[in-house]
User: What shape does this take?
Amino acid sequence: MRFSRLLIPTTKETPNDATLASHIYLIRGGFIQSVGGSGLYNFLPLGKKVLDKVRAVVKDELDKANCQEVSLSFVTPASLWKESGRFEKYGKELLRFKDRKNNDFILGPTHEEMMVNLVKQTVKSYKQLPLNLYQINLKFRDEIRPRFGLMRGREFLMKDGYSFHTSTEDMEREFTFMEETYKKIFRRLGLDFRVVEADSGAIGGSGSKEFMVLADSGEDTIVVCDACDYGANIEAAVRKEKTCDEEAPEAVFAKFHTPNTKTIDELSEFFHVNPFYLVKTVAKKALYDEGESKIVLFALRGSDDLQEVKASNAVQANELVDVSEEELTKLGLVAGYMSPTIVPENVIVVLDNELKEASSMICGANEEEYHLIGNSFKGVEANYHDVISVQEGDLCVCCGEPLRYTKGIEAGHIFQLGTQYSEALGANFLDENGKSKPMVMGTYGIGVSRLLAAIIEQNHDDKGCIWTKASAPFDLHIIISNIKDEKQVALGEELYESLKAKGLDVLLDDRKERFGSKIKDYELLGVPHAVIIGKKLQDGTVEFVTRKEIVKESVLAENIMNLVEERML
RNA sequence: CGGAGUGUAGCGCAGUCUGGUAGCGCACCUGGUUUGGGACCAGGGGGUCGAAGGUUCGAGUCCUUUCACUCCGACCA
Assistant: This one.
């Protein structure tokens, strides 16, 4: 294609609301255009080209893995979502609206309901299973705070796949197979990624894994082990039970006067003990459907922090929010001195798993200026859950080596769903014995438009994008330095036509611009290779450029064709 | 949701305090010069100043209402 005929509105200036490299370069390079700055984007020709290339890789690998592409209606009747129970549960991210007849509709943020409904109507027998259907379509999530360009938009392109099985074993087989298929996709796109254990979130289900593209700007914190391949999202990470070298504060059970010691630090100072032996009691309000809420006390070691997602799951809440001091007082809870053992009615207590066998612990007395010493949880029946946040340096549950934090961009997520949706929506099949059973499901997602951002986050420099081979908008970028130099133009045209004929996707910069603008645009757009036809043609040479490190190789003009073929075909 | 801020040309901004002809840079159009790191000269086009209402002879500017967007915050008992 000819640059002079393409709509590629590159700019020198960075948009004022962009902080991430991917956001800046996608806008500056004319790949995408912001729509009213509210998490909505138009894809311009170049952006659409990249999107299609990424999409093609995803589709190719899935089709090879016997998945079948379909396309589901974007607008979804709310009735299906009411059946599954998610119309209420999904929260404000679900965009709801009414048609002229006043019927409720939603814009699909994910399509379990629609897909289950499709399968329910067409699949009746075990002979038709297993089945893996997917689509690559728009999704809409009314994010609280869309930001970072394509990283967290409200409307985005997602591949969502759903598999249906006669048994849990078969679903697990497919889950593992999809993990391998996804790895092929991410590798082919040239990404550095890690597969990690994850929380299942609003989708539900038992096991789930996330595909994290490693990048400092990632919004997710992931816990990894360098000694083995353990990796998990912080929301799901576990560790080998923590121990403490310091001596435990031996004491018989007693109430102790502890003025002005509301925080763990103050308490640790007061008793001269490691926070490991203190109980931190965190109050949260758990929100449920239809405006119901409960106050929950989470108790954990003072050396640990509460992991909110784990905590929320422990009480099966939709969300946890902070509780005001007034509310606590009203319930008979004393802020700063709360206790997991002395608790008013109507307050739920959740103890962290690691407190199960703990002894010599100090906790609040739920009384102003008093703590209880010499507490033991040995043999105490209680509501135990894993609610702590794994910290850097904690030990790996698999191999015992220290764990490390890193940042990742969630680009894929696969779930073992089970029968939760098939039961709710009545998606049953008849087995060999003619018995009706709910289908066992798995679900698999890839954020296709987010991948564009992820690729750039991982592959850019201070000049612009550096697309990977599989994602680049063009294979080769030819720059004619001076459009008034007939020799340069002639060679450029010749190269362009013959390389096109060989099947390369070539961009020819034939604009009436100065060299400076053209090379800046080249570096900004980030096509993996370029040929510069310029001044040096007088001496019979041109340059072959590799974008990644900006390496320029001088090549005799008559050899350039061979070199390009050799390197690129 | 809590806090702060911003809406003026396609983009980035000044002008608002102290009311009086709508400005600048980039981009765009025309002509010319220039052509290896985002050029220069000359000329030109483009804005119901977020919206509604009010005060005034006169409102981008003052008052009221409203909408939109951006940024920061959501491990504390």
Chain A has three domains: 3-238+405-457, 254-385, 476-568.
